[in-house]
Amino acid sequence: MEPVNIIGAGLAGSEAAWQIARAGVPVILHEMRPKVATFAHKTGDCAEMVCSNSFRSDDDVMNAVGQLHWEMRAAGGLIMAMADRHKLPAGGALAVDREAFSQAVTATLRNEPLIGFRPAEVTELPDTGNWIIATGPLTSDRLAASIRAVTGTESLAFFDAIAPIVHADTIDMSIAWEQSRYDKGETEEERRAYINCPMTRDQYEAFIDALLAAEKAEFHEGEMAGYFDGCLPIEVMAERGRETLRHGPMKPIGLTNAHKPDEKAYAVVQLRRDNALGTLYNIVGFQTKMKHGAQTQVFRMIPGLENAGFARLGGIHRNSFLNSPTLLDDRMRLRSRPNLRFAGQVTGVEGYVESAAMGLLAGRMAAAQAKGNDLPPPAFTTGMGALVNHITGGADAKTFQPMNVNFGLFPPLEEMRGGRRGRKERYPAYTARAKEDFRSWLAVQ
Fold first, then answer.
1. Residue 44 annotated in ligand binding
2. Torsion from C-alpha of 90, 96, 99, 100, nearest 10 degrees
3. Is 314 annotated as a binding residue?
4. Is 12 part of any known ligand binding site?
5. In the chain, which residues have pLDDT < 70?
6. What was the pLDDT predicted at 413?
7. β-strands 130-133, 4-7 pairing
8. Among 307, 255, 310, which residue's Cα sits nearest to residue 282?
């Protein structure tokens, strides 16, 4: 049996390789790192998480991301299995020790006899064979040029942002306190998963002034000054209005200052645990294009972070993706070259979970093809099906931009039409239907 070739060992490529091997089909996984580095990656490990350590909500009843988690677990997904094994307390979210997580994914794939590794850069799209391109937001320049030549269109671009990471022992806990928003979580550890830094109105106003005045890094030649709204730099949010941050990542609702319970904060900066040891915390939602010197000055204005030591400062980079509605069919194949499937963020999904989910689908579809079969996507009443439907035809090609999974992509329930049903009724109905339909999809394979 001819092997399936995968370019890119990120979240999507790693999940695709696992699904193919588990189907009994050989895989060759091509990864350019560490021989060819990127500015964001630090290792040559598979499934390295560079922006955040969170897979977001794990609630599979009330949240579309949680539903996607459920589907990936139901399908025997490697990414969810390793995330569960290396999870950290994070309230209702699924956060992981990112280093241990990627090392575990790498070890699992290398121990699978049907998976072979080719540590080299692929610079041209192959003409023949069964291939999955899962090169992610940092597709190399030469391969990106080949993709543009084959598709006949320029890659679109937005800017992925990286939030800074703080050493936990440099946070002043006489000012900050531990609490998940609304005390969410089943255990005391989960209910105390975030560190919160409060601001008065005067402190907030001074912070906004400094943020707007701070020196920003210049874009590299060829970069476009456009952003994806789901991953805006904090200074761009501040430019949209002085109250924007206070209603976004700095919202104070659902939090009570343990040191001053009768005093309501005007704004709150949250930090989320970033490793199993609890020595590192990332500043939630604080993606930035500020220069590094400016970052340390501005972020140390946050109460509790006056003496913060930074393990990593923020950054921002270009992310190229296909105009998938015009280029891909519902099997995620390039219409002009059906031997090529695309998976992950390069298809125009946004987020770790969504990227890995598209890798899972592409892997199962490629394995079916290798066996002489055809596997359709799951119904678009499911999380995976809704995403595939969106990127391969559900979205308007003229305005196509990266999309997270959300209930807005799910078809409405007939019994919910014509009434004023709230989320507490609609969302469980969406996820119950999704689970039933996803089980049906798995059953026919």
1. no
2. 120
3. no
4. yes
5. 36-41, 153-161, 218-231, 317-319, 415-421
6. 86
7. parallel
8. 310
The pair of structure tokens assigned to 70 is 């459920």
Check residue 341 and give its pLDDT: 98
13 is in an annotated binding site: yes
pLDDT value, residue 141? 80
Enter the DSSP assignment of 266.
S
Residue 311 assigned as binding residue = no
Alpha helices in 280-422 (DSSP H): 292-299, 324-327, 352-370, 383-389
8 Å CB contact between 166 and 304: no
* Residue 130 Cα distances to 2, 20, 47, 112, 256, angstroms: 8, 12, 22, 20, 55
Q: How far apart are CA 259 and CA 252, in angstroms?
A: 15
Tokens of 314: 């923020």
So where are the chain's domains?
4-155+322-443, 161-318
The secondary element (H helix, E strand) that includes residue 197 is strand 194-199
CA distance 396 to 112: 40
Tokens representing 202? 């005067």
Report the SS3 class of residue 398. helix
pLDDT in the model for residue 223: 45
Using the CB atoms, write b or e for 332-357: b if 16+ within 10 Å: bbbeebeebbbbbbbbbbbbbbbbbb
Which fold, 4-155+322-443?
A: FAD/NAD(P)-binding domain (3.50.50)
Q: What is the residue whose two structure tokens read 């969302």?
A: 427
Residue 275 and residue 97 in contact, taking contact as beta carbons nearer than 8 Å: yes
Sign of the Cα pseudo-torsion (12, 13, 17, 18, in order): negative
Residue range 161-318 forms a domain whose CATH class is mainly beta
Instruction: Give the residue among 328, 263, 299 at the shortest CA–CA distance from 167.
Output: 299
Greatest alpha-carbon span in the chain: 69
- Tell whether residue 267 is among the known ligand binding residues: no
Is 137:79 a contact under the CB 8 Å cutoff? no
Taking residue 278's Cβ as centre, other Cβ atoms within 10 Å add up to 13
Asked whether the beta carbons of 315 and 104 are under 8 A apart, the reply is: no
